[in-house]
Design a protein that fits this description.
The protein is an alpha/beta fold and 512 residues long. It has 23 helices and 18 strands. The strands form six sheets. Strands 11-14-17-10-18 form a five-stranded parallel sheet. A four-stranded mixed sheet has the order 1-2-4-3. The radius of gyration is 28 Å and the shape is elongated.
């Protein structure tokens, strides 16, 4: 008997439906074709053991399985369940009515338990697009997939449950998820807050500007000045994820296997902080079977690189293109995969090897040449792509001991949201542009016009500091954001002045 079941393969952050054709006929051999990898070929042993746990046996006949389309490589163990159900149905152990209206995914343990798989959300989205009635998958993936409306999602513990479902022996209720309730209960709930930070008012202001315009930022200062503490609080003032952003972010983390069984939808902006020993591939994505890297896991959120000069130079340089294009393309001989990478880069670094260059109290033990050599670990082109450079100085005892109230994240976020709403209206007809940091050159000429005073001020700063053309663009974009925070239609000299001060770590003169 020839039976079809349906599974799904994940390529990039999207899924492709795979048709599994099973034919059980006279003979004793087993054939599995359709470009399966080793994990798929090994499924026979897992399926046989799972059958025995239910009291079934492998058919004493010839079993031929084709996985179509045959030109897409089938990877991983998520095909165990559709293969097993196809064999049982073709061997007339399971009723065939209705099985072709469901997509099946799941890895089988030897006792028949269904183990969680990667990519449940993009698989559910593809199933809905192609008109399937429902999706059957391990119970640990059920909440994640149930986010997709218009699709019956059933989470199963064992393959025996799936058999009973199609044979009509037991009734199962589809998993339901209330997105409104999830956003209401989980959005904007963080363990940290801006009010925890004492002093550092100028740095908090820089973080507010960065959040309002989606700008990249680097903090430079001695050890213990609070750089990491401030960076961890940046997501608390960024506007909450929209439903579209939440779905896209969850898809990426789902493909990477970063979603736990309690999470239905990511409602907080991601904050990724990889160690400085990270490799090129781990940061940007790739591998033999491409997977998203840290820059994609930070999509719609923050990528924090602590101690930036300690990262390998090759690792930092591969970020230059994603920072501009907000997408990373992984090319292989047989395929090309695009992963979104629209993240805010926040970096921190010491000013010199000993960490105390320009310290108000402690003496730096490094020579001028050592300081410059240390700073040169970060290339000029990469530094130019960072909009805001801010110096972080140590906080004195009086400010640390101050018990007075300080501004909390919710208050700052309100101002950021208002600024972002101005930008949303400004760019409503510009596809793919949502914040000032994403403005093209033509948009910049249109929306960042300066008055005479502002133009003279910027010209003087460029002449004195030797700023590049890219730094000029960054200053204009940051000034536009500062004007938006002030709800000013025009960019004034004071906005330009503040934006110039956020470039005070450019090469000229910093190292002495």
């Amino acid at each position: 008997m020839l039976i079809r079941t349906f599974a799904s393969a994940v390529t990039g952050i999207d899924a492709v439906t795979v048709t599994i054709e099973v034919n059980v006929s006279q003979g004793v051999r087993f054939f599995l074709v359709g470009l399966p990898d080793s994990a798929v070929k090994e499924s026979q042993q897992r399926i046989e053991s799972a059958f025995r746990s239910m009291g079934y046996h492998w058919p004493g006949k010839q079993v031929v399985i084709n996985m179509a389309p045959a030109d897409i490589r089938k990877e991983g163990s998520s095909y165990d369940l559709p293969l097993a159900m196809g064999i049982l149905t073709a061997n007339e152990k399971v009723l065939k009515d209705g099985i072709e209206t469901y997509v099946l995914i799941g890895e089988l343990s030897l006792d028949g338990t269904l183990q969680p798989v990667k990519g449940a959300l993009p698989i559910a989205l593809r199933a809905r697009e192609e008109g399937f009635k429902g999706l059957i998958l391990p119970v640990k993936n059920a909440r994640e997939a149930a986010v997709v409306g218009g699709l019956d999602v059933y989470g199963m513990e064992k393959i025996g449950d799936v058999v009973d479902f199609f044979n009509g022996l037991r009734k199962f209720e589809p998993v339901k998820v209330d997105l409104v309730e999830i956003f209401r209960n989980e959005a904007n709930k963080y363990d940290v807050d801006f009010s925890d930070v004492r002093g550092q008012e100028n740095v908090k202001r820089a973080l507010e500007v960065a959040a309002a315009g989606g700008h990249n930022l680097i903090m430079i200062g001695p050890p213990g000045a609070g750089k990491t503490m401030l960076a961890k609080r940046l997501p608390t003032i960024i506007p909450p994820l929209t439903l579209e952003e939440a779905l896209e972010t969850t898809k990426i983390h789902s493909v990477a296997g970063k979603i736990d069984d309690h999470t239905a939808l990511m409602t907080k902006r991601p904050f990724r902080s990889p160690h400085h020993t990270i490799s090129d591939v781990a940061l940007v994505g790739g591998g033999t079977f491409p997977q998203p890297g840290e820059i994609s896991l930070g999509h719609n959120g923050v990528l924090f690189l602590d101690e930036l000069p300690e990262f390998k130079r090759t690792v930092l340089e591969v970020m230059r293109q994603p920072l501009e294009d907000r997408v990373i393309t992984i090319s292989r001989a047989k395929s090309t995969v695009d992963y979104p990478a629209s993240f805010m880069l926040v970096a921190s670094m010491n000013p010199c090897p000993c960490g105390f260059h320009n310290h108000p109290e402690k003496e730096c033990m490094c020579s001028t040449g050592m300081v410059q050599k240390y700073l040169n670990r970060i290339s000029g082109p990469l530094l130019d792509r960072i909009d805001i450079h801010i110096e972080v100085v140590p906080v004195n005892y009086d400010k640390l001991a101050d018990t007075g109230k300080t501004e909390n994240s919710a208050t700052v976020r309100e101002r950021v949201v208002r600024a972002r709403s101005i930008q949303a209206k400004r760019f409503e007809h510009s596809r793919g542009v949502y914040s000032n940091s994403q403005m093209s050159s033509s948009m910049q000429r249109k929306y960042c016009q300066l008055d005479e005073a502002g133009g003279k001020l910027l010209k003087t700063a460029m002449d004195i500091r030797g700023l590049s053309a890219r730094a000029y663009d960054r200053i204009l974009k940051v000034a536009r954001t500062i004007a938006d925070l002030a709800e000013s239609q025009n960019i004034n000299a004071e906005h330009i002045s503040e934006a110039i001060n956020y470039r005070n770590l450019d090469r000229e003169g910093w190292a002495g």
